[in-house]
Design goal:
There is one protein chain. This protein is an alpha/beta fold. It has a seven-stranded mixed sheet with strand order 1-4-3-2-5-7-6, sandwiched between helices. β2, α1 and β3 form a beta-alpha-beta unit. The longest helix has 12 residues. The chain is globular, with a radius of gyration of 17 Å. It starts with a strand and ends in a 13-residue tail after the last helix.
């Protein structure tokens, strides 16, 4: 049984389908959600297929988002039944494009070329997903800054490794990691291999 229930899904605009869809699970996202959506819709070129999976927000952010972006697609999910893996997999399946960007509600893409830059990874047909480096907000706690630097280091320090056979989850995470705070996936791959049901950490799982 589906977790997502349609709240607002306007028809697709005429013309070619969008190059990229965007999926954001949200709950009372407030101004940060609106900042994210503004950044996403400013990417261009052409319209953005944006999908919100909303866990019964009560802060008015969904109504304001629909007012600003009439083409926004909104699906609701019961807070008590929310599951990070299932919700993302179902929302990706609803996307109108093959490439689907995934964000957390408080992440904001830097620069006007973010979606084009991360989509370039898929020029290689063997790529199933790509994740962005996370940059701390100005004034962020030093502990958070250090954690983000270790989790998503600069590209110059990343090494390609083979699959890990270790039973130690820390060693396996060092060999292969993924993070849906800011990522992009192929819709066809997620349909074939959905994110596993998880209350947290569906991306690394």
């Amino acid at each position: 049984m589906s977790l997502l229930r349609c709240l607002h899904d306007p028809p697709a605009p005429p013309g070619d389908p969008p190059t990229v869809s965007v999926v954001v699970p949200t709950c009372d996202g407030g101004p940060r959600l609106l900042t994210l959506l503004d950044a996403v819709h400013s990417q261009g070129p052409g319209p953005v297929d944006a999908i919100l999976a909303d866990s019964q927000s009560t802060d008015g952010s969904i109504d304001e988002a629909r007012r600003r972006w009439p083409g926004l697609r909104v699906y609701t999910v019961d807070r008590a039944r929310f599951d990070h893996g299932r919700v993302r997999s179902e929302a990706v399946g609803l996307a109108r494009s093959e490439l689907v960007a995934l964000f957390s509600q408080d992440a904001v893409p830097l620069g006007a070329g973010y979606l084009r830059a991360i989509a370039a990874a898929f020029d290689d047909p063997t790529v199933a997903g790509a994740m962005a480096r996370q940059v701390p907000r100005p004034g962020a706690d030093p502990g958070i800054r250090g954690a983000l630097l270790r989790w998503t280091p600069p590209a110059s320090s990343i090494q390609v490794r083979g699959p890990s056979t270790s039973a130690d989850p820390r060693e396996r995470m060092a060999a292969a990691r993924f993070d849906n705070v800011g990522s992009m996936v192929r819709r066809s791959v997620v349909r074939a291999i959905p994110f596993p049901p998880r209350p947290f950490g569906e991306d690394i799982a």
